[in-house]
């Protein structure tokens, strides 16, 4: 998971209870480095291939915000593809790693501490937002709708959102293990029809859905477009 934590921002979220607080996690620098170093290079390559398939919908001249950006692995990939890219994360340690990761690539841009549920940006501040490998950690519909609404508010045209499909072999296996008491639930698959409801209420339409391996892996990356200019 490219991490987020918990906070409120005076722009859009001040004064309201943060439903992310029950499971949000922040990192010190040592924990952030351990998280980065655990990433399997083969899994990373497969996930970036998934990102590339979704990017076929996104014009190369778009300014893309990666949120939460973690240590910058998706940002680095987008930059290599020719996109103007910025990043945001609540974890200062992750932001520090992202700066170290991106600097040698010649990247320069915005990298800021932000709360995913209360982003401190004006409406349509970026052409496209990508939110990768975090949505499956949101346990309830109210939180999921709040996050989607905020992503859609800040995006000018596209939102790319990864989610876990409940219909995959890996999701079915995990549900079986949970029922047997072999593990505690920590991932929450979302049907595509449920996402269509969240995005539809925010004024977006579904334009693409890409799976790492359909019916095997649970990870999908969906593409949503603002329905009205």
If helices are DSSP runs of H or I spanning 4 or more residues, what is the number of helices? 7
Spatial strand arrangement across the major sheet: 3-2-1-4-5-7-6
The CATH homologous superfamily corresponds to Vaccinia Virus protein VP39
**CA-CA gap between termini:** 32 Å
**Gyration radius over CA:** 17 Å
Question: Low-confidence parts, pLDDT < 50 over ≥5 residues?
Answer: 1-24
Structural class by secondary-structure content: alpha/beta
Shape label: globular
The proportion of residues forming helix, as a percent range, comes to 25-40%
Structural domains: how many: 1
What would your notes on this structure say?
- By secondary structure, the chain is of the alpha/beta class.
- It has one domain (19-226): Rossmann fold (3-Layer(aba) Sandwich).
- Helices cover 34% and strands 20% of the residues.
- It has a 7-stranded mixed sheet with strand order 3-2-1-4-5-7-6, with helices on both faces.
- The two termini are 32 Å apart.
- Mean pLDDT is 83; it is low at 1-24.
How would the blueprint of this fold be written?
Layout (H helix, E strand, L loop, with lengths): L28 H9 L3 H15 L7 E4 L6 H8 L3 E6 L2 H11 L8 E3 L12 E6 L9 H14 E10 L4 H11 L12 H10 L2 E8 L7 E8 L3
Parallel strand pairs: 1-2, 1-4, 2-3, 4-5
Antiparallel strand pairs: 5-7, 6-7
Helix pairs in contact: 1-4
Give me a quick take on this structure.
By secondary structure, the protein is an alpha/beta fold.
């Amino acid at each position: 998971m490219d991490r987020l934590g918990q906070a409120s921002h005076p722009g859009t979220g001040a004064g309201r209870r943060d439903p992310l607080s029950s499971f949000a996690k922040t990192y010190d620098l040592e924990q952030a480095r351990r998280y980065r170093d655990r990433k399997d290079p083969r899994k990373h390559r497969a996930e970036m291939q998934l990102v590339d398939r979704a990017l076929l919908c996104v014009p190369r001249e778009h300014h893309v915000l990666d949120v939460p950006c973690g240590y910058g692995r998706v940002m680095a990939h987008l930059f290599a593809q020719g996109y103007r890219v910025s990043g945001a994360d609540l974890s200062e340690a992750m932001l520090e790693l992202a700066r170290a990761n991106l600097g040698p690539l010649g990247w320069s841009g915005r990298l800021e501490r932000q709360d995913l549920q209360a982003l401190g940006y004006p409406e349509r501040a970026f052409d496209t937002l990508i939110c990768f490998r975090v949505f499956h950690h949101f346990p309830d519909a109210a939180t999921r709708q709040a996050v989607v609404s905020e992503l859609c508010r800040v995006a000018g045209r596209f939102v790319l959102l990864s989610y876990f499909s409940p219909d995959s072999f890996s999701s079915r296996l995990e549900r079986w293990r949970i029922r047997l008491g072999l593990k505690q639930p920590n991932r929450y698959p979302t049907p595509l029809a449920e996402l269509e409801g969240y995005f539809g209420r925010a004024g977006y339409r579904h334009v693409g859905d890409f799976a790492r391996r359909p019916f095997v892996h649970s990870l999908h990356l969906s593409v949503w477009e603002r329905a009205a200019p």
